[in-house]
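Design job #97: recover the sequence.
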């Protein structure tokens, strides 16, 4: 049986999309890997502004994402509270490269995001290992320890953790 067509993985990296007629090269912050009806896995470049995860326990998730994403060189670049309150607590935070807009947003919500799988590009194998250790140290759930994937993703070294709400967050580096 062939896999169903659809998006299977989102990867954040800093590559440029090829120029299109009448358009300059666009910064590619996300690669969406699709499964076609024929079962072929390929990288389909797409321009995506950001991804958002809703958290059931915002404070706990902030600790997790600060640690996990910090190990990959991403910083908390923005945070917002209720603009109608004078002393509002933070209800939304965004992480990204220090010189760019946030790529990943976390928002406080009654209904948390479940079942998301975000794959973030790491620069080195050491960054993948640091991501895994930092994520587990900040309350993340072990899913796949850092390792090579010789069959499914030849040439990649990655690790997958669960965030406090069970979403899978992956760091992957080319070997």
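Job complete. Output follows.
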């Amino acid at each position: 049986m062939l896999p169903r067509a659809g998006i299977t993985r989102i990867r954040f990296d800093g590559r440029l999309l090829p120029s299109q007629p009448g358009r300059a090269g666009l910064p590619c912050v996300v690669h969406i890997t699709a499964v076609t009806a024929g079962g072929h896995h390929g990288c389909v470049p797409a321009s995506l502004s950001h991804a958002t995860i809703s958290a059931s326990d915002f404070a706990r998730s902030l600790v997790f994402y600060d640690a996990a994403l910090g190990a990959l060189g991403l910083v908390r670049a923005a945070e917002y509270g209720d603009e109608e309150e004078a002393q509002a607590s933070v209800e939304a935070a965004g992480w990204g490269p220090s010189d760019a807009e946030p790529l990943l947003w976390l928002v406080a919500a009654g209904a948390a995001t479940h079942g998301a799988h975000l794959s973030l590009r790491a620069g080195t194998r050491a960054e993948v290992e640091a991501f895994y250790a930092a994520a587990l140290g900040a309350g993340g759930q072990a899913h796949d320890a850092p390792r090579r994937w010789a069959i499914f993703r030849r040439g990649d070294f990655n690790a997958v953790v669960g965030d406090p709400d069970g979403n899978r967050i992956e760091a992957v580096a080319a070997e």
